[in-house]
């Protein structure tokens, strides 16, 4: 069954349409019995809202399309298509299954745009409809595209299912009406934490003390409980870390604003801090009070020559949130492909479209900023104070990137999850607003966390042995943003979460809801599938005995202390006043002409630091810097291209590398077993390497999210564009050339 628009516009549309109707009629009669056997699997608390039968889901393959007959249903959790031949698809080859979301399931939060086709014209659907479409197209936030033909569905069912989907995916919601709460209430007795999940949640004072001790930050900083019960500030977590000299009264004075919050400490004693701006005031008297307050705060953290603080204003000209939103809106359109023809028509403009989106340039800017901060901390032994209006967007992003680059603990899976908990969840990133889960404001929707994951992917791609997790881990983590059974990404702050789950309630009879964490991967994946989240290339740090540790520590520090310029003398007399005035201007909302780090001296230091590090062998358990030159910043192919069959690499991509690696691991293990047998070893056999890749005969770069699919037979350059291209000489001069997306 083909695309109706293409068929009906062809010369033989009558014959093909007749065949199409006969095909549907024949299969309708044949499937009447089997339809009853296809059951809708509901999660605890999930309710069916509306459904429609005799729906065709188009499946793209080759140069045409064919359809799968079934039911389209909408619940308070998801949109699901139940194909009659679903049992045939449920075989061993689909090895990377999500236990919560099926292949044909779309959570309501994952729906991005809904389109209807009226008389071969595609229109955006919203609100109440006067006329209902013959075809429904759903674009998802994980970049899947679904096509449903409703032409042979009963009119009343079409009205019901289309109206239901539009309402439940687009209408503004109340927080307590999210499926998260229905699921938690219904599954309360079954909820249990994964005993193997050792992620530090940073919801206790003990967690923060442990982190201080791990990073040796407890010499200069202290964990405080002044905000316990959120009595000082609802924006901050109940527990956090501040400089030791800071008095608790200072924390309370402006409800947590204007206070340096500790993020992380480097091995050389320098620290990464963040601070939110004070409320903007017009009254000169209040402004003077704020200025005096900030002056005192600054003196507690800036004590030259022993303690030097450099401020980084992230709320100024660095990267406006609106720019991130606009760039990603353009970028994602490159991958929301409706059909094969559209893919090949836009392929010739790939370079210009990619460049005009500016998404890769934004990634480069974020990585560059993180490297600049790393240079100040590592080479110049400076404390860094990140400034932002609420310290909950770019502060989270940049501070997390710096820690991933400087601390190998955060390149392990448990460490990375703990980092997200510390800097994003407890750091007050507004996931509810930034992901627009309540559909209340499109202006607030900005993919800051997705930008962070994309930046981390650049590091994973460039330095695979340094990370314990894989790009597949990052991809499924990005997908988990839209699964409303996990609380991790569905609140704006710890206070909002605790308030809505009933913690701190005065009623002794009320029991707080036990919400799932996204870090319990066993909820989504079987153990066999979870092996794809662990990187077999990871170079685990060798364990040393006590006699070796002291010597290795000094060697490690010499490696990190890269030779740059001569050590700087202590700042001149006017430095402190200039820095203080600059800090006060930023925090009081004053406009500045340029960022601090735009000086030529800093650019020279950055280049020397950057070039020096890349000129030496990489220590995967030390400092890690990305390449940020032109083509080094790449498209995250697995996440963005995984649903596009035309973009696959047959037997290629990272899956080919992994497959070969696992074969070598198996061969080495086999040889080891023979050696052990020869020496009559009594040791237990080693665990068998994961076999997900070896057992599948249909591998491509789409794995593990899709099996091998055949390429369409479209030409490399669309014939419709030949006239506009000109001759070969002119074509060679053009910037936009054909690019194999598999090489992106």
Automatic annotation (TrEMBL):
GO BP field: phosphatidylinositol dephosphorylation
Domain of life: Eukaryota
Location (main, coarse): cytoplasm
Keyword Cytoplasm: yes
Protein localization: Cytoplasm, Myofibril, Sarcomere; Sarcoplasmic reticulum
Gene Ontology cellular-component annotations: membrane; sarcomere; sarcoplasmic reticulum
Keyword field: Cytoplasm, Sarcoplasmic reticulum
Ranges of residues in domain Myotubularin phosphatase: 202-640
Its biological purpose: Acts as an adapter for the myotubularin-related phosphatases. Regulates phosphatase MTM1 protein stability and possibly its intracellular location. By stabilizing MTM1 protein levels, required for skeletal muscle maintenance but not for myogenesis.
Assembly information from the UniProt record: Heterodimer with lipid phosphatase MTM1. Heterodimer with lipid phosphatase MTMR2.
UniProt family annotation: Belongs to the protein-tyrosine phosphatase family. Non-receptor class myotubularin subfamily.
Name by which UniProt lists this protein: Myotubularin-related protein 12
Organism: Prolemur simus
């Amino acid at each position: 069954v083909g695309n109706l628009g293409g068929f009906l516009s062809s010369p033989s549309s009558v014959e093909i349409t007749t065949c199409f109707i006969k095909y549907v009629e024949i299969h309708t009669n044949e499937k009447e019995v089997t339809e009853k056997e296809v059951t809708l699997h509901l999660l605890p608390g999930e309710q069916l809202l509306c459904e429609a039968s005799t729906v065709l889901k188009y499946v793209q393959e080759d140069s045409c399309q064919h359809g799968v007959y079934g039911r389209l249903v909408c619940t308070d959790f998801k949109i699901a298509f139940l194909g009659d031949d679903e049992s045939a698809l449920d075989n061993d080859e689909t090895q990377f299954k999500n236990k919560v979301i099926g292949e044909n399931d779309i959570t309501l939060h994952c729906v991005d745009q809904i389109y209807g086709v009226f008389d071969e014209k595609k229109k955006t659907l919203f609100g109440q409809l006067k006329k209902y479409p013959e075809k429904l197209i759903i674009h998802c936030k994980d970049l899947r595209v679904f096509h449903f033909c409703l032409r042979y569905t009963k009119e009343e069912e079409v009205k019901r299912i289309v109206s239901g989907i539009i309402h439940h995916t687009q209408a503004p919601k109340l927080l307590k009406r999210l499926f998260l709460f229905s699921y938690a209430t219904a599954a309360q007795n079954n909820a249990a934490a994964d005993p193997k999940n050792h992620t530090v949640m940073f919801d206790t004072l003990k967690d923060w003390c442990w982190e201080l001790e791990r990073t040796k930050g407890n010499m200069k900083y202290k964990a405080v409980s002044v905000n316990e019960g959120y009595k000082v500030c609802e924006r901050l977590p109940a527990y956090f870390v501040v400089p030791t000299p800071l008095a608790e009264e200072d924390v309370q004075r402006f409800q947590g604003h204007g206070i340096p919050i500790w993020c992380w400490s480097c091995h050389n004693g320098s620290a990464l801090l963040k601070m939110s701006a004070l409320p903007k005031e017009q009254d000169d008297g209040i402004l003077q009070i704020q200025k005096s307050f900030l002056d005192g705060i600054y003196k507690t953290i800036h004590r030259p020559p022993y303690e030097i603080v450099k401020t980084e204003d992230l709320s100024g000209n660095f990267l406006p949130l609106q720019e991130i939103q606009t760039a990603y809106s353009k970028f994602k359109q490159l991958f929301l492909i409706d059909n094969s023809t559209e893919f090949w028509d836009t392929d010739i403009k790939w370079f210009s479209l990619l460049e005009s989106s500016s998404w890769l340039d934004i990634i480069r800017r974020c990585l560059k900023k993180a490297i600049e901060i790393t240079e100040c901390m590592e080479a110049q032994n400076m404390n860094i104070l990140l400034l932002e209006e609420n310290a909950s967007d770019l502060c989270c992003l940049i501070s997390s990137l710096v820690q991933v680059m400087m601390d190998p603990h955060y390149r392990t899976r448990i460490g990375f999850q703990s980092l997200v908990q510390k800097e994003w969840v407890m750091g007050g990133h507004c996931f509810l607003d930034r992901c627009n889960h309540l559909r209340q404001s499109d202006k607030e929707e900005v993919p800051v966390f997705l930008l962070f994951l994309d930046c981390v992917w650049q590091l994973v791609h460039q330095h695979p042995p340094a990370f314990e997790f894989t790009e597949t881990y990052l991809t499924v983590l990005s997908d988990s943003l839209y699964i409303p059974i996990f609380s991790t990404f569905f609140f704006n702050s710890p206070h909002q979460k605790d308030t809505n789950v009933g913690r701190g309630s005065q009623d002794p009879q009320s029991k707080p809801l036990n919400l799932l964490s996204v870090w319990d991967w066993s909820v989504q994946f079987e153990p066999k599938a979870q092996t794809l989240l662990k990187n077999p290339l990871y170079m685990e740090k060798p364990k040393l005995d006590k006699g070796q540790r002291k010597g290795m520590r000094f060697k490690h520090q010499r490696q990190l202390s890269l030779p740059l310029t001569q050590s700087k003398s202590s700042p001149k007399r006017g430095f402190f006043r200039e820095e203080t005035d600059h800090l006060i201007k930023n925090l009081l909302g004053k406009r500045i002409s340029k960022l601090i780090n735009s000086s030529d001296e800093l650019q020279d230091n950055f280049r020397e630091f950057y070039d020096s590090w890349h000129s030496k062998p990489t220590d995967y358990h030390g400092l890690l810097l990305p390449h940020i030159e032109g083509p080094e910043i790449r498209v995250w192919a697995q996440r963005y291209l995984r649903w596009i069959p035309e973009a696959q690499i047959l037997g290629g991509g990272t899956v080919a590398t992994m497959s070969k690696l696992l074969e070598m691991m198996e061969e080495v293990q086999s040889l080891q077993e023979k050696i052990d047998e020869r020496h009559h070893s009594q040791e237990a056999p080693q665990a068998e390497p994961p076999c997900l890749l070896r057992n599948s005969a249909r591998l491509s770069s789409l794995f593990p999210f899709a099996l091998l699919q055949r390429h369409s037979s479209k030409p490399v350059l669309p014939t419709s564009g030949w006239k506009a291209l000109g001759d070969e000489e002119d074509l060679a001069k053009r910037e936009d050339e054909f690019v194999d997306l598999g090489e992106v």
